[in-house]
Specification:
Strand content: over 45%
Number of helices: 2
Number of domains: 2
Shape: elongated
Structural class: mainly beta
Number of strands: 15
Strand order of the largest sheet: 7-8-9-11-12-13-14-15
Distance between the termini: 78 Å
């Protein structure tokens, strides 16, 4: 290989490498204005970049909120806002919570709950409260007139001397392991995640004082507004008592206030 060909090859390699190093990214804002730049990082809901005319290492890094742009081109690929839910573009979650433990009082199904975060998206929730049952016992067994957070899975004896009206409290203890899965998505779309306002999956265990137990998986939804909260669990599992067991659905609704 003669010297001229070697110089041409090295020059082409140099220009190719220079083109790669100075490849242009682009951000298009909601008002259709364009920023020609070099994107430095994409995390949480913020894109950090440097202008092309100041792309030196020592130059100032600028940022733009992701929800203020129509699209951006990064490493030769263009991403649009409608695609953000399909692609993991913002992997860092900016945690707005200042507490790791939340103490709540439920007004619907009275009781206290203590939720403690053991990781950013994982928590243990313990609850102590009581359900209420109002009904009538007849020769055909139990007939519940009103049941407040307590599933009836046991039938009464075959024979009764007569109808008996009753009102019963059903103290319970609940222990739940939660994995929140929608924190990133809610934050990106500008929705609140304070005090674990998100959706989750959980392993749900429940023990009533009167010999009834439950264990099973649930899907949950928790929302907070000012000092009030709403929580919903939907799932199913195994109910156990001293004389038997049964697989049934579970619905758990709580409405109350945050105490801390």
């Amino acid at each position: 290989m003669n010297k001229t060909k070697l110089i041409i090859i090295l020059t082409l390699l140099f220009l190719g490498g220079l083109t790669m190093l100075t490849a242009q990214d682009q951000i298009i804002l909601n008002d259709s204005s364009t920023i020609d730049c070099r994107i430095i990082s994409i995390e949480a809901n913020v894109i950090q970049f440097k202008d092309n005319d100041s792309a030196q290492i020592s130059s100032e890094t600028k940022s733009v909120l992701a929800d203020t742009i129509k699209s951006y081109t990064y490493d030769g690929k263009t991403y649009y806002n409608s695609q953000h839910r399909k692609k993991t573009l913002f992997a860092t979650y900016n945690d707005p919570n200042t507490e790791d433990t939340y103490i709540r009082f439920s007004l619907y199904v009275p009781g206290f709950s203590f939720e403690n975060r053991i990781a950013q998206s994982i928590s243990i929730n313990a609850e102590l409260g009581t359900g209420l049952g109002v009904g009538r016992i007849t020769e055909n067994g139990y007939m519940e007139i009103f049941m407040f957070s307590r599933k009836r899975v046991v039938e009464g004896p075959e024979e009764w001397p007569g109808a008996i009206d009753y009102t019963s409290l059903y103290p319970f203890f609940k222990l739940e392991f939660r994995k929140y899965y929608s924190l990133h998505r809610r934050q990106y779309h500008g929705r609140a995640t304070i005090n674990n306002s998100a959706n989750y999956f959980s392993l749900y265990t429940l023990a009533f004082w009167d010999d009834l137990y439950f264990v099973g998986p649930t899907w949950g939804l928790q929302r907070n507004k000012n000092r009030f909260y709403f929580n919903l669990n939907l799932g199913g599992g195994l109910y156990l008592w001293s004389e038997g067991s049964k697989i049934q659905a579970l619905i758990d609704v709580k409405v109350g206030v945050l105490l801390n």
